[in-house]
Amino acid sequence: MTTESSPQKSEQKVKCVVWDLDNTLWDGVLLESDQVSLRDGVTDIIKTLDKRGILQSTASKNEYDHAMTQLKAFGLSEYFIYPQINWNSKAQNIETIARKINIGIDTFAFIDDQPFEREEVNFSQPDVLCIDAADIDKLLDMPEMNPRFITDDSSKRRLMYISDIERDNIEENFVGPKENFLATLNMVLTIAPAQEDDLKRAEELTVRTHQLNTTGDTYSYEELDHFRQSDQHILLVASLNDKYGTYGKIGLTLIECNEDVWTIKLLLMSCRVMSRGVGSVMINHLRNEARKNNVRLQAEFISNDRNRMMYMTYKFAHFKEKEKINDRVILENDLSQVQKFPEYLTVNIF
């Protein structure tokens, strides 16, 4: 199988597959003839990737309306989010898709029949896994395309992103303060102790979430199950819903509980809720619980090139650096500030 990538890329699970169209998704060149035909097995591949929670899009040099009409005729247009059908470079289009979805470029795969196009992407975006269209029959067997678990959230991932697109379009046309727009969403955030049937999604969150992640630590199903049952730990899962539907399980928090101090070992939120302010809500809940239990509240933080926003979330919540142990910064909150939950959000705590 022909792939081009950086050495470390083979260890990374793919979150989004970007398809070329001409002589890749279908046989033939659309601008030369409307009589193009889908490649054998491609529909099953697309639907299987979708069920695995792998997003898909297109980067194709074509006329947008013409190509979208053809995708609709094949019954496939709904599977491609943020399609980039224009005359820009494929590398530029993949970068645009990554920015709109808000996931790392190193979680992308790109399929094209032309060596030149794959080489151009590989040169400009070396972290993208480039695949020869001649090898798509092997695609579903690639380790990068096989997540360990397929959860309820992952099987609905594309539909949740489509809801996000609808929300974003409405927000762009909303006149007034952001808090007023958020109030129109009727958001309900639920914070509850993790149950056994939450653990597959919890593991997936630790593996997939990089930007809104305070340490970058990953935990297996078995490790999370241990924490769930441990008297020395609290494992919380956050879910978010609004009038457009569910965001699913979007947050995970692990607290180590000692007699006089609680330490937040991990706090993460899905990048899909970055603009909803739920990270600060979770922190305020933990501050309230620590105050009730008469314990100090600390947090561990490991800086990387993506998670500065989580550091700022801690700082805005009045955490101050206490010490540094190897690569971990230890922050502490004096719990003197009592912060109410925002009015635009209903919070249910169990």
Structural notes for this entry:
- There is one protein chain.
- With 350 residues, this protein is of the alpha/beta class.
- It has 2 domains: 3-145, Rossmann fold; 178-349, Gcn5-related N-acetyltransferase (GNAT) (Aminopeptidase).
- It contains 11 helices and 16 strands.
- Strands 14-15-13-12-11-10-9-16 form an 8-stranded mixed sheet, with helices on both faces. A 6-stranded mixed sheet has the order 1-8-7-2-5-6, with helices on both faces. A two-stranded antiparallel sheet has the order 3-4.
- Helix 3 crosses helix 4.
- The protein is elongated.
Name of the CATH architecture of the largest domain: 3-Layer(aba) Sandwich
Q: Determine the strand fraction and express it as a percent band.
A: 25-35%
The parts where pLDDT drops under 50 for at least 5 residues are 5-10
Main sheet characteristics: 8 strands, mixed
- Main structural class: alpha/beta
Question: Can you count the helices?
Answer: 11
* Distance from first to last alpha carbon: 50 Å
Radius of gyration using CA atoms only: 22 Å
Give the CATH topology of the largest domain.
Aminopeptidase
Say which CATH homologous superfamily of the largest domain is assigned. Answer: Gcn5-related N-acetyltransferase (GNAT)
Which percent range fits the helix content? Answer: 25-40%
Give a count of the beta strands, DSSP E runs of length 2 or more.
16
- How many domains in all? 2
